Amino acid sequence: MLMRTDPFRELDRLAQQLSGGATAGTWSKPNPMPMDAYRSGDEYVVLFDLPGVAPDAIDLDVERNVLTVKAERRPAPVAEGVEMQMSERPLGVFSRQLFLGDGLDAERIAASYDNGVLTLRIPVAAQAKPRKIKIDAAGNEARQLDA
């Protein structure tokens, strides 16, 4: 199972609750690294939207079942003498952390990046998969079988 945490999002949510919620005309800051996650068979698939981020500007680390994704969106090169009129796209280093449950195999995470989407495939660990137990009626002993 994947567990996510974003302390700043939690602080924003708490501040919003304490202030009585958003009012008309209030803009919330968009998440610069939106994510989807789902389970497909014996793996979890996590997708991060990272438009405008070069593949070499993405860093993945796993330490003590915490997966950290860092990405840097750099300013687009502009010709000399060009004056910026509007800049709304967030720039800089962004990071997200996912807490990986003990039932996931953090050693075999696979990552790919295509069209601005980072895809992580996290397999379920073999010891976490369901197993059938065969009951030996003659000796009243149980043996474990791999499913």
Written description of the protein model:
- With 147 residues, this protein is mostly beta strands.
- The protein has a single domain (2-7, 30-75, 88-145), classed as Immunoglobulin-like.
- It has one helix and ten strands, in the order E-H-E-E-E-E-E-E-E-E-E.
- Strands 1-6-5-4 form a four-stranded antiparallel β-sheet. A four-stranded antiparallel β-sheet has the order 2-3-8-7, with no helix packed on it.
- Strand 2 (35-40) and strand 3 form a beta hairpin.
- The chain is elongated, with a radius of gyration of 22 Å.
- The chain starts with a strand and ends with a strand.
- The relative contact order is 0.20.
Summarize this structure briefly.
This protein has 147 residues and is mostly beta strands. 8% of the residues lie in helices and 42% in strands.
Largest sheet: 4 strands, antiparallel
Strand order of the largest sheet: 1-6-5-4
Q: What string, H for helix and E for strand, traces the elements in order?
A: EHEEEEEEEEE
By oligomeric state, this entry counts as single chain
Highest-level CATH class: Mainly Beta
Number of helical segments with 4 or more residues: 1
Strand fraction equals 35-45%
- Overall form: elongated
The residue-averaged pLDDT reads 80
**DSSP, total strands:** 10
Helix content: under 10%
User: Which class do the helix and strand fractions yield?
Assistant: mainly beta
CATH topology: Immunoglobulin-like
InterPro entries: A-crystallin/Hsp20_dom, HSP20-like_chaperone, Small_HSP
Domain SHSP: 26-138
Pfam families: HSP20
Family: Belongs to the small heat shock protein (HSP20) family.
